[in-house]
Each structure stands twice: as structure tokens, then as C-alpha cells.
Amino acid sequence: MANVQAFHGLRYDLGHVGSLSDVVAPPYDVIDAELQRQLYDRHPCNVVRLILNREEPGDNADNNRYTRAAGFLRSWLREGVLQKDTQAAIYAYHQVFSEDDVQYCRRGFMCCVGLERIGEGNIYPHEETHSAAKEDRFNLTKACHANLSQVFGLYPDETNEAANLVDFAIEGKIPLEATDHLGVIHRIWPVRDVKVISELCGIMGPKPIFIADGHHRYETACNYRDWFTATHQASADHAVNSVLMMCVGMSDPGMIVLPTHRLFRGLPPVNTSQLSDQLAGFFDTTLAGEGPDRALTLWTQIESDGDQGNLAFYCGDDQRWLMATITDQGRSKMTEIASDQSSHWRGLGISILHRLVMETLLDANQLPKPMYVHSVQEVVDGLVRGDTVGRDATGQEGQGGDFPLAALVMPASLEHVQEISRQGQRMPAKSTYFYPKLLSGLVINPHE
After folding, report:
1. CA–CA distance, 56 with 33 (Å, rounded to integer)
2. pLDDT (tens digit, 0 to 9) for every residue of the chain, 448 residues total?
3. N or C: which end of the chain has fewer CB within 10 A?
4. Residue 398: is it exposed, middle or buried by C-beta count within 10 angstroms (0-12/13-18/19+)?
């Protein structure tokens, strides 16, 4: 069961830092080198110095980006830049944003949630994790003794009972507000009413939680808890036994999932005729126009159909698009090559793209990571400009040259997240993109 807890958060004192917008940052894994520089320049106390401190010449075991982050945290506490709330609270958190000219407000609350090892309780991941990222976050947590950023958790709540309870508690109260580099407005309110917190804990208790974002941070929190309790005396209610989490109801009107399209590197040149031959029998294919700009019309069609089995491919060799719809033979092949996965997993557009098309039919198993983009305009821009040296929006290094193949693919739905996670399975990487990202620096969960 979800063990939701109030906590004594660390928050910026606006008397010291001025605007909250100047000291917050997006999650570390979406900060590229240029954005890191901008955040460093924005304010000397920007939280980027904690979550993604810069590497410096001469770094060693005793002086490095983790020890510097810990030093900043200690000095900001000592100087009053960060102050610990004297009363335990949960923190209402609203994000106001626009997507496709529609304005949304995603409502949630930040709290501490008792840690459960993956597979041993009611907290479920939906994507794979990587050891290097977990080692990085472990070193940072070990140095700072705090959750510096939230895990993003989703929970089923068809009537939005939990969010409505929290909204009632903050009605008429003035929030703290920050605007991020993408123009998203973030608002938080501390909720200290013991009765409200108790009622919220009761509502959340029976619910499962599905990790939307922050898988590495969650698994790191479990690893850190194990390390800490093996080397220190820690009571059952010690802060190390929980993790900072933003909880959002799956039925919240502001809860949307964006696609993650692929621009592939490392393939030999391919044209639509060749690709159609390779997909024959497993997909029904039709030529669908030419030029990168055609992506805009094709995505409208795919999104309108809402079928996970519909894909659109751009072939760089002839600069044409191919629409592909999986056939019964293709689905049978998916059952054969992914027999260890559930029917929900096998039906995902991302699974079909990677397991059936790329790995099986194209035999492209050793490709560099594709460039991941979320808007169709980014697909167009990437195809026009090619792969430029530097880092893309995911922090991934470019390698130069053109993309021989691109794919438009439907995102996994919240229902997919729930069904696949409950079966103990994980989706392919970048199956979902939950927009907007949560800000770091709104509240920190100290372990000391």
C-alpha cells in the first residue's frame, strides 16, 4: 500500500534569492550543456549546482561535482538561503501549460512515500533503468543526504478524490510561483492541516503507484536506504526510508502523454521501395508523400486513428514517406519473437517499431541510440538540419551527418502503463513522455 507522509521540506527563502523562477531547474537528465550554463548564470544559488554540478579540471575523489554540490547545500542552509519548514506538510503542486493551443492545469501534491523494493509492493516501474545513471544519482545522494528532486508517481483515482481534497485545502490561498525556461507556470502551496493530511493518507493507502518519471531516482533511493541502514543506526520512521514524490491522478484533466518519435542513426541508405519490400507481409504499406514537411499531415492522421499499429517512416535516400500498418501476420510474428512479453506489451507501437521492424525485419540490432524528439516539428527540423554535433533535448550527444530513417510512433497510454507495469514488465526506453517536466528546487527532502 502507498505509505504517504508529510515531511519538513527545505525551501528557498525568497528574501535571499528574490524570484523563485531564478533558482529552479528542470530535471538533471533533460539539462544539456547550454542550459546548464544558462542556469549557472541565472543565479548563484540555482539548484542546478546541486542536481547537476559542473565537472571541473582537476576533479578527484576528494573534490568533485558531488562534493561541491554537498558544499553548496551546507552553505545555503547555513546562510539561510534554504530553510527547513518547522511544521510537516505535503505540498500542492499545479503546472499550467499549453499544448497544441490548449491550456491545461496538471494537479498533484508532493509528499514522501515509503520505499518498497520493485516487485515487492505496490509501487511499479514502467521503463528500464541504466546502471551508470543510478551510480551517478547514488553518489550525489550519498554526498548530499537528501532527495534533491521528486520522483513522478501516477495513481488511479477516477473521481479525482485526492486532488480535489488538496485543492479544497488550498482554496483562496496565495501560491509560490515560478515560470520555467519553456514558459510553464509552476505553483506550490504547503498544506499543514493535520486532518487533511490524515484523510489524504487514507485515500492514497490502498492505491498502487506507477512511476512515470524518475525511475533512476527511485531505485537510487532504495539502494541508498540499504547502504545507509547497513552503516548507520536508523529508526523505521527515519527519512531515509521514504522518497520525495509528486503524485498525480491518472484521471486528472491535465495528465497528458506526448509521443517520442525516432530519428535513427547508423543505418545504410534506404529508400521507400526497399523498406516496403522488407516490411512486406508483416505490414500493409503505402507511399505517403515526400519531403520532411509531410510529417505534419501524416502525424495528424496517425493521431486521429489512434491505432498503435500505425507507423510512418521517412526514408532519407529518396526523401519519401511510407505509411505502415501491422497485419495479422505481423502480430503473429510479434507473438513469436516476444513470447516472454504480454499482449499489451506486444501491441505497443514502440514495441512493434523496435522489436519487429528494427531488430527483426531490418536486422538493425547494434545501432547508436536514435535521437528522440517529441513534436512533429522537431522531426521536420531534424530531417532538414541533420544530426548536428552537440547535445539534443535529451542530453544525448550528436554525431554529425544525416538521418537515413525516421519514424513517427504513437505514445503508450496511461492504460498501457498501468497494465504492463502490474504484470511486472517494463516498456522499451522512451515509450512515454510526460509533459511538462517537474521542477527541481521547489522543495527538497533532507535525510538529516
Report:
1. 13
2. 689 999 999 999 999 999 999 999 999 999 999 999 999 999 999 999 999 999 999 999 999 999 999 999 999 999 999 999 999 999 999 999 999 889 999 999 999 999 998 878 899 988 777 889 999 999 999 999 999 999 999 999 999 999 999 999 999 999 999 999 999 999 999 999 999 999 999 999 999 999 999 999 999 999 999 999 999 888 988 999 999 999 999 999 999 999 999 999 999 999 999 999 999 999 999 999 999 999 999 999 999 999 999 999 999 999 999 999 999 999 999 999 999 999 999 999 999 999 999 999 999 988 998 999 999 999 999 999 887 533 343 344 444 468 999 999 999 889 988 899 888 888 888 888 999 999 999 999 999 8
3. C
4. middle
DSSP 238-263: -GGGEEEEEEEETT-TT--EE--EEE
Q: Where are the domains of the chain?
A: 88-256+435-446, 260-410
38 contact partners, CB below 8 Å, separation of at least 6: 181
Kindly report the length of the chain.
Answer: 448
Spatial CB neighbours of 419, under 8 Å, sequence gap ≥ 6? 342, 344
How does strand 151-155 pair with strand 242-249? parallel
Query: Is 245 within 8 Å of 6 (Cβ atoms)?
Result: no
Backbone CA torsion sign across 289, 295, 297, 298: positive
The enclosing H or E element of 343 equals helix 343-346
DSSP conformational letter for 29: G
Q: What's the Cα-to-Cα distance from 260 to each of 66, 196, 360, 429, rounded to whole Å?
A: 31, 38, 21, 10
Kindly calculate the radius of gyration of the chain based on its CA atoms and give it in whole angstroms: 23
Helix, strand, coil percentages, rounded to 5, for the chain? 35, 25, 40
How many C-beta atoms lie closer than 10 Å to residue 345's C-beta? 23
pTM over 0.85: yes
Three-state DSSP class for 416? helix
Q: Cell numbers for 18, please give them.
A: 528574490
Instruction: Determine contact, residues 21/179, Cβ cutoff 8 Å.
Output: yes
The region that residue 119 occupies, defined by phi over 0 for left and psi between -120 and 50 for alpha, beta otherwise, is left
Contact (CB, 8 A) for 313 and 405: yes
CB neighbours of residue 209 within 10 Å: 24
